[in-house]
Every structure is written in structure tokens, then in C-alpha cells.
Amino acid sequence: MKALIAAGGHATRFRPITWSINKHLLPLAGKPMIFYPIENVVEAGVKEIAININPGDKEIQEVVGDGSRWGVKITYIEQVGGACGIAHAVYNARDWLGEDEPFIFHLGDNIFRAGIKNIVERFHKDCLHCALTLSRAPNLTELGVAAFDANGKLTRVVEKPKDPPSDLAVTGVYVYDKNFFEAFRHIQPSARGEYEISDIHTWLIENGFKVGYDIVDGWWKDPGRPAQLLEGNILAMNTLPQSSYVIEGEVDKAAQIHGLVKIEKGAKIGPNVLIRGPVVIGENAEINNAFIGPFTTIGTGCVVDGAEIEHSVILDKSTIKNVGRIDGSMIGRNVTVAAKTCSLPSSGHKMFVGDNSLVEL
Length: 361
Prior knowledge:
Blueprint: E1 2-6, E2 27-28, E3 31-32, H1 35-43, E4 48-53, H2 59-64, E5 73-78, H3 86-92, H4 94-97, E6 103-107, E7 111-112, H5 117-125, E8 130-136, E9 144-148, E10 154-159, E11 168-176, H6 179-184, H7 197-206, E12 211-215, E13 220-221, H8 226-239, E14 250-251, E15 256-258, E16 261-263, E17 268-269, E18 273-276, E19 279-281, E20 286-292, E21 296-298, E22 303-310, E23 313-314, E24 319-327, E25 330-331, E26 336-338
Parallel strand pairs: 1-4, 1-6, 4-5, 8-12, 14-17, 15-18, 16-19, 17-20, 18-20, 19-21, 20-22, 21-23, 22-24, 23-25, 24-26
Antiparallel strand pairs: 2-3, 6-11, 7-13, 8-11, 9-10
Organism: Candidatus Uhrbacteria bacterium GW2011_GWF2_44_350
Keywords: Transferase
GO molecular function: transferase activity
């Protein structure tokens, strides 16, 4: 089977960070989010992957590459026609997928603790036309939600319902046969102007095709907002095998390292530092006079001096200096957060803050 991974869109809820970085490259447990769906489909036996990207996007290609690190071939397909919904992203890739073979469709921002092998095996074993994974989720009004009849039979999928028909959301991994394309040709754009993947599923169900499902074993995360990405970072860090937490950087003998801590090559940890894991510190980072607390990832080339950081994600090449405590935060690339140096008697704060930012003082 081939696999298509969706990595387009504009992630407006993550702005201003996503003005300069594709959401799917934001780190979870120290590696780009999109690596998780790639690893899922590779584990399921896929050898050919296409990634749907925004027109002109080169950054994902630069980070992900040609697939050789996973032993697969990766192709990039630009989205044509603008933001027309994720069902349209699949239809846009029909020439690459072929309209006769089954395939996996995986959203590039969804992570699964148990991977996706079970649903792929279920698709083949039960000779399904479509296989879905369902999971209980708190934010049902933002997702596609499964509806069942009195006998517990799946009858339709409702996109972003005001009144959810069940507590089971459809997660971001799907397996289809060629009938996906037949379904697409029969649906119309929704009120928000998009071809909804939920309408594909409902059409297949109502027209007698075999649509099966499994309940996700373990957690599933669809980080649609910054707070959810921080939660996803916690889940990903808790799932990393203990063997992943290795110290390859330079650590001063007087520094204190407790718990599971990963320190990558070239990183330098000074003497007056306490790190309490799980923590991931990227290559060439410098940490001095600091406390780095649980569920924190520090990106490549960051400098932290005179600060306490916990439950946060700090992207590459940012500097945090003499600012006290930072908790539950997400800081973009090349950002400076520092104590003011003005000698004038002023209690004001100096900020250059972009659109859609959040600052709590």
C-alpha cells in the first residue's frame, strides 16, 4: 500500500509561530511532529509515501528529505486549488495514488501511542472499503464524530457537530480502497466551502460499502491548539523508550541530572544547573544557572541562562536570559526573552509582539 500524509494548511491557531514555520515541523519530544505519522506508516509496511504540502513549501522537503532515513521513497505533492478540505487533499493526489489500489491517509499532525498497524490489518482481514479509528475526545465540537443507531451500528460521521451524537471522534488515520474516489465525486463542499472527509465516510456508509472501525488502543492526540501541543509533548516524552534518553553533550561535574534526560551532541550544561526529566535538550544548546523541569524540550542552538523552565517547548536558536520562571509556554525560533537592561527608573515591560500572541505578565 501507498500512504498519503497531509501537511498543508496554515495552522492559524498557532500563529504567530506558524507565520515562519509549518505546524507539522513543530517538535514533540525533540523531533518534528510529522516524523510520527511517517514512522507509523513505515511500521505498517508502506514503502512509498507522498506528503501533501502548500504550494511553494520547501521547508518540509528540507527537513524530511527523500525518505532514505526510513528506508522509503517520499514524494511531495503541492495542494492545488487552495484550502478545499482534507478530502480534496486526497483527491488532489489521485494520479500518484492511482484509483485502483488501497491506500493509507494519515494527517500529519496526529500522533498515536500504539501506531496504526491494527487498523491496517483490520482493513485487510475484514475486506473493508474503508477503515476508521475512533477515540474518546473532550473537544468533540472541533472534530468529526461518529453516530450510531440503537443497535450500535455506525450510521454516519458528523463534522464539528454542535450537539455531538456520541463521545467517539474519528481520528486522523484512514484506510481506503478505490471507492474513496467514487464517494468524492458524489459529495459537495460544506457550508464552510470544504470537501469534508466526514461526508466521504457518510456517503460510503449510506451506499452500502463496508466501513469498519477500531477504538484507539492507548492515547491519540490531534494538537489543534498550542495547549494541546504541549499535552502532546508530554505524551510523546512519556512514550519514548528509556534507551532514547542518552547524554551525548558536555555536562559539568557539578550539574545535577535527575530522571530521564536526553542531551544531544554539542550541547553544554554548566555547573549551576539542575535538570529534572523527562527533558530533551537539542544539539549545541547552552544551559547555565538554570532549572529545566519535566516535560520540557529545548531546541538546537538555544541559550538558557538564569531561568527556570518547565512544561514548555522552546524552538531552535532562542535565548532565554535572567527572566525567572517560564511554565506551560511555547517559544518560537530565534526569539529572545530577557530581563530589561534599561537603567532608567521604569517598571514597564518592553515587547515586540506579533499578531495572535499571548503574553501573561
